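1st attempt posting a full record on here, be nice pls
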Amino acid sequence: MGVLTHIEVTQGLLGGGTLGLFAARVRLRYLAEQTDTGITRRRARTGESAAEALNELEYPAVYDRYLAYGCLCVAVGALAAVPLFDPGARATIYLLTTSIVGFVSAGAAYGLASLRSGMEE
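the predicted structure (as tokens):
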């Protein structure tokens, strides 16, 4: 098995990120609406922005906790990778930055979950 080079990893992340951004933009064009027969999807109105579409999005508050746990796993994994794999200086900076962003995101998602569950009660 060959070792991944920096260019291959960068190309993979860029390609995956581009595909994810494209999928998110396509998904935001459709909104879920509650009807008498159940939940149906409709295309967003032309003047409707992505922020307005996200405001209409309703989902259970437990998903925020799942997001927080996922971000926490990424943060701990990135932090644990530094002493385990002994990467170079540049990769260490990337891993530590990923860890910090993961911890902050986990805290924000958990706070949002607490706020949403407090509003539902």
